């Protein structure tokens, strides 16, 4: 038995040596104590010297150092802060126990003595804060050295035999100090992830200890016992293992109620934090949530005097939903109670409206409970969406919001608006979105400033989540006048919120909707630009920037008035470090104005503005997170896009500062030796190197700077093309370190893509040798990752995408046959290993499907891993596509049979959906890049592709439709044309009849691809479809404009313009009767993402050729927006 036969009073102590043998009991080195004092002191010089002295001792005399730390801890007459620090340092000495050069390993035979002394210090220590730090040292050490397999049930810990008997002896000894017993329970709680198997070896005794402690008169003991139970059941791997302890649940809820009535919330918060649910915890309490837990938790959340306790209780309730959503939806009244708490929290607003109006968003106090309530609505809704239960939840929310609005009380109305804003992204139905938007719009004119403020916030959220609805013609005519009113709101805080909302709303507006309001908006914004309030100036500049960005050259009339004002702001703020945000926004606004007036309009001011931007980065003593850097790089991108090659003279001045950002990289985190402030946002990642795990950190602002620098260079290379060639080598050298960036995959993605752009720039600049060097350098660095023993799925995916980008942009004649073979063999081997991992993961799962528990809740870990694997497989297949694109003959000769065999295998009826998707992607590459080289093999795969045009799964239907468009380009497709055209026609007709929902967007994208296939067949194979040609043309025309797929939109609308200009009878109709309607389609896509620049230009010229009289006649049939 590991802690005696029963829980009884005892004072028998474990006998352990008191000191390391080389030290006398009374000998406490005064110099050592002084060193610890200096480590805690405020004298930087003395602290630095003390750190060096301490580090030297740790390296050269680790045994003596640890003995000195122990001696100080044993001397109760030394001041508490010094003893606390010694406990902290001792914990560090007991860290990284598996590292060969760690202090723990250097202790050698003294390790056992130290373990014994730690337990003795724990039991003897009378000062609570010192004892808790010693407790922390014990649990940290034990968690590192104890290693028990899940299926083992040992009677004791072989790595530290005295630990558990000592802890449980103290816990069961009611004559001991209750806080000491509570600390011992805390240690066991922290150890449960490592020792739960041992606790389960004696379930009856574990149960008795927990039961006794839950009934203990000391609140500290009760609280830690309840927390231990939560941690214990969370660690147990099986439901059967947890089941015997469910009888303790009523005891736990009783303890929670008792703790809630205590004026001191510390112990209650301990339990509530332990309760924050995982899947196992929620499952454990399942049968008692409605009857025992919810009444206690709701009471605490609503009325406890301690704010932290209220938040913790609410967090427990929400975390249950997050861990087991389907189960919680079945718990009686859970959803009603949870939503009631959301509303209750959102109504915890200050009554002082006047005081609130005097504050601003930056300086005003955060109403924390209100924020907690809002976030809870979002979290609960997200969970409901995940298990396809949001419609059920939405009905309850609708009723709740209606009641809140009907009260007319401002707090209730604010809560209602906030609820609508938080659920906006999850609402799929356009009619419901419109209804909700109308509900918020009405509140924009409310008499209460806080209601108007909330309404503008809600409008911003709906603009972000449902831009297509709120920017529709029906809403813009109502909302833009509201913005004019909002700018003049009597409450400055509301006016600022209105301006913020426009930043989101304006970006979704069509030019023709915004143009009538530019003049009145600019009149009001011009006045705000002259404001002495910097915050107002910032918002006004951003507002103007959004308008300029949306209406392009229509903003040109305001350029001459605005530019002098913005230049003056730059002059006034250039050297004021406290106004860097305003300066950055000026640069942003100017770059958008430049885009609006175009190259010729901005050229005269370009040099002055660029010089100001360069000078702004040279201001001394700038903070690490200087916002101007980010704004400047983004502004440089836009100005480069506007000036094109005229931007070239500025590159040499700007580029060094941008490339300098490429040196930003994570650094190792070492506790106690970092200058991180509480307000700093940092990213953490774990790096395994030479068998050791390092914690790497990087400021979020640094990651953003690095990302901004990459985007900036990417734009320079893309826009300047061949003109950037002189800078390619310099940029490539600077870019190489980013290849090893591990903190965020998106950074590495962008670095690889930028490398590909450098290849294209060098190629366009005629630097053939440099192109080859760039490709070879890239492959040398990246291909070995595919052969590494350690598998990092995310890194492999990113690397494959990088290879694809590099090879596509480098162009033809770069690789020789052996290199192509090596790339194909390597990537195919990685893919084969991925499929093996899938097979292994599927073992033990019925039919290889995702696992669900009895409540229907899924275990998503395996699903997430498989999604990552599939994304990697797709990226690996795209590598093959890049090889086909520029080395088609070589690919056919060397590797086509391997990929064809895979496609045939993936098309088998029993193959998973993901495999069929891969097959479709590879088939599309066959058809696009190999062309007639692949036609002899069509019978092996093309019939399956055509078959998938009617696949009920849109994710398969879309690439099938696109593949047909590619196949139809060659004459050999003629025998298949008629049947395929009929299939495509059905896809278009059925898809366009679907309701307008977010979830239907992919179906519309399928129809967009089907339109491309249909018109390609009509143009290339008219004789093959002659019998139904007229009907097919009608379907193609009625399916326009394209709705979701921008590439297909560009393709089809370009083709439509060409056919109208050619006056093709099947298109324009008899006597041109279809032209007004079709011209309306072109008007709809003019200067949108659904038409490329050349097509938009052609639409404009076509309109001029039509003449004024025809345009007036057409306009009479158009909606107001089209007019």
Would you kindly provide a written description of the structure presented here, covering whatever features stand out?
Residues 840-869 are annotated as: Disordered. Residues 128-289 form the IPO4/5-like TPR repeats domain. Residues 860-869 have a biased composition (Acidic residues). Helix 37 runs parallel beside helix 39 (793-810). 69% of the residues lie in helices and 2% in strands. The radius of gyration is 35 Å and the shape is globular. It has 54 helices and three strands. It starts with 29 loop residues before the first helix and ends in an 8-residue tail after the last helix. It is mainly α. Strands 1-3-2 form a three-stranded antiparallel β-sheet. A hairpin with a 2-residue loop joins strand 2 (682-689) and strand 3 (692-699).
In short:
The protein has 1123 residues and is an all-alpha fold. Helices cover 69% and strands 2% of the residues. It has a 3-stranded antiparallel β-sheet.
Descriptors:
1123 residues; mainly alpha; 54 helices; repeat; IPO4/5-like TPR repeats domain-containing protein; cytoplasm; protein transport
Computed Rg? 35 Å
What's the shape?
globular
Total beta strand runs:
3
> Unreliable stretches, pLDDT < 50, 5 or more residues?
1-25
Helix content: 55-70%
Structural class by secondary-structure content: mainly alpha
- Tell me the strand order in the biggest sheet: 1-3-2
- Largest pleated sheet: 3 strands, antiparallel
Distance between the termini: 88 Å
Instruction: Report the total helices.
Output: 54
**Average pLDDT over all residues:** 91
The fraction of residues assigned to DSSP E strands is under 5%
Main location: cytoplasm
Subcellular location: Cytoplasm; Nucleus
Pfam family, one: TPR_IPO5
Protein name: IPO4/5-like TPR repeats domain-containing protein
